[in-house]
Amino acid sequence: MGAFVISKRFNDEYKFTFTSRKGKVIFTSLSYELRFECEEDIEKFKVNIDQAKFLKFKGSGGKYFFKLMLGDVHFATSRKYSTELLLQKGIKEIVTYSPKSEILDFSSSESIFGDEEFEEEMEEAAE
Prior knowledge:
CATH topology: PH-domain like
Strand order of the largest sheet: 4-5-6-3-2-1-7
Radius of gyration: 17 Å
Order of helices and strands: EEEHEEEHEH
Number of domains: 1
Low-confidence stretches: 111-116
Distance between the termini: 39 Å
Number of helices: 3
Strand content: 25-35%
Mean pLDDT: 86
Oligomer: single chain
Number of strands: 7
Shape: globular
CATH class: Mainly Beta
CATH architecture: Roll
Structural class: alpha+beta
Helix content: 25-40%
């Protein structure tokens, strides 16, 4: 099953991605000023997936991508795909798994290790 992953951009705004069962990013949302706005839009998307539209494009480099529309609003943009078939598989994964996908929040700037644990890990790795 895929997952929605909330994170921060370099400009301190929030975004979320939808990742496949294999951990590959399928699409990235637009920017949000507040984290809870991401959560609200994810929940709205999960409930209204049947109203989503996928506008397909072929870029100048020959790669395929789609813009995800929810109603008339641009919601997210996909990663680039080398073939139209892979693009279609990405869309199918969204439609199939997003309604039951969990939300993971990695927007905290804190290290996943405590400072002391991180320093110990670095020292051991250096030895």
